[in-house]
Design a protein that fits this description.
Low-confidence stretches: none
Distance between the termini: 77 Å
Radius of gyration: 37 Å
Shape: elongated
Number of domains: 2
Order of helices and strands: HHHHHHHHHHH
Number of strands: 0
Strand content: under 5%
Mean pLDDT: 80
Helix content: over 70%
Oligomer: single chain
Largest sheet: none
Structural class: mainly alpha
Length: about 325
């Protein structure tokens, strides 16, 4: 009984609120009609003219913004760019004029650091190539960062351009490739007998040259970066001549992941060992070997191989993803 009374009371309050709201709306409409009826024809005409004048001013302002405003902004942008460029040129030229002359004994590079590299580099690193000893021993942590940057760049390119079933939903570039199935990037190279026979001879030579440059980086000019670039060029030449189908017989996306991961982990672990022993003044158990021998310079040879693998895989990854949208 009590619940029925509460329901009736609730319905009554709802009806009263609705009736009050309708009455307020009706009174507002009547007031507006009375105000409009109270205006004289001259006042109505004046209000219309005022409204038309406001619309005309707004239209002229938009036209000025579209035409004159755009020209002014472009002019200011050009002037600002010119001023910034000239300022930078003047500052750089002034800096160059203030630099010490080439070969001057007062040059900042002639300090105890460079002297240590030259005088004790062979003794401390075992590398005949002083540049390699500096990059992969004294500054090996910096080189690890450079290799990581290459790997990160390859991953970003894969994220943006890799073509799979869902990639066109997330990447505009992948969507363009997905929506153009007749693009040249979707076709394998034509069977050019001259190109294939030439590549058949050149690819092994190029790869062997890259391996030589990597393995001799601590003995002669070269190393992981330059040797890896040569081997990457060899892989690109192979895929241009024979196509991605044959390349995937021995180099796939899983191969890329495995090789780069092992190379970076090996590099990091090797240098962590060197940092730990060096910071705690513990003699390293890895011998430097005989300077000039292929198996010498301690961990530098291993680091060169790791860097060479990373650079090789990154170069081919860039080409394959830009060319085909996948590895």
């Amino acid at each position: 009984m009590k619940s029925k009374m509460m329901n009736k009371l609730s319905e009554w309050l709802t009806d009263e609120a609705s009736a009050l709201e309708r009455e307020m709306e009706a009174s507002q409409e009547r007031a507006a009609d009375e105000d409009e009826a109270a205006l004289t024809p001259a006042e109505i005409r004046w209000a219309q003219e005022e409204k038309e004048e406001e619309e005309r001013i707004a239209r002229r302002l938009n036209e000025w913004t579209d035409e004159t405003g755009t020209k002014i902004s472009r002019t200011l942008y050009s002037i600002l760019c010119l001023v910034i460029c000239l300022t930078l040129i003047v500052l750089l030229l002034y800096t160059v004029t203030e630099l010490p002359s080439f070969g001057s004994p007062d040059h900042p590079i002639n300090n105890e650091v460079s002297a240590r590299y030259i005088e004790k580099g062979l003794q401390e690193t075992g590398a005949v190539n002083i540049v390699t000893g500096m990059i992969l021993d004294y500054r090996a942590f910096d080189t690890l960062g450079e290799s990581s940057v290459l790997f990160t760049a390859a991953m970003v390119v894969l994220f943006l351009l890799r073509k799979d079933k869902e990639s066109h939903k997330y990447s505009p570039l992948a969507k363009v490739m997905h929506d153009n199935p007749h693009s040249d990037t979707y076709y394998e190279p034509k069977n050019d007998i001259i190109l294939q026979k030439t590549a058949f001879v050149l690819v092994p030579i190029v790869l062997l040259t890259g391996v030589y440059v990597v393995l001799n980086g601590h003995l002669s000019p070269g190393g992981g970066f330059s040797g890896g670039a040569i081997m990457g060029a060899g892989l690109i030449l192979y895929v241009i001549a024979f196509g991605f189908a044959k390349m995937r017989r021995f180099f796939t996306y899983k191969t890329y992941q495995f090789v780069v991961l092992i190379a970076l982990l090996t590099y990091a672990c090797s240098k962590c060992y060197s940092f730990f022993t060096g910071a705690n003044h513990i003699p390293s158990v890895i011998p430097l070997g005989t300077p000039g021998a292929i198996l010498s310079s301690g961990l530098i040879l291993v680091l060169n191989i790791c860097v060479g693998f990373v650079v090789t895989c990154t170069m081919y990854c860039f080409y394959a993803v830009f060319r085909k949208g996948e590895l």
